[in-house]
Amino acid sequence: MIFVSSCRPMGDDPEYYANQLAAKASWELVARAIVYFNDFQPALASPKTRFLPSQPYPFIRDMVDFCADQNGEWCALINSDIIVTPVMKKVLEKINGKKGYAAF
Questions:
Q1: Residues in CB range of 36: below 8 A, 6 or more apart
Q2: What is the helix, strand, coil percentage profile of the chain, to 5?
Q3: What are phi and psi of 102, to 5 degrees?
């Protein structure tokens, strides 16, 4: 699964910064890849992570277009401060088992 999000520049808001870092750490355990629509942020970088330059507040339609271009691989649009657990992998297995096309 590819997680797709935008991110706030690090340092703008210390609480949000901490939340983004915690969320990113949880994503690393679940996602195959992570794509942020924004400028490179060193604190969020990892071998799994890509940054796509965009305007400061990217359009959701641009992120959805990116997802649609991923050759059928599951993508999740997710806010950059949302923590996930490894249970998300089981949810994906259930969706695939029911031949699902989308979930929210």
A1: 5, 6, 7, 44, 49, 50, 51, 52, 80
A2: 35, 15, 45
A3: -160, 160
pLDDT per position as a tens digit, 14-58: 888 899 999 999 999 999 999 999 999 999 999 999 999 998 889
CB 10 within 8 A of CB 43: yes
pTM for this prediction: 0.89
Report percent pLDDT > 90 for the chain. Answer: 63
Asked if residues 67 and 77 have their Cβ atoms less than 8 Å apart, the reply is: yes
Question: CA-CA distance, 79 to 27, in Å (whole number)?
Answer: 11
What are the residues facing 4 on neighbouring strands? 35, 77
3-state SS assignment for residue 54:
coil
Q: What is the phi/psi pair of residue 7, to 5°?
A: -140, 150
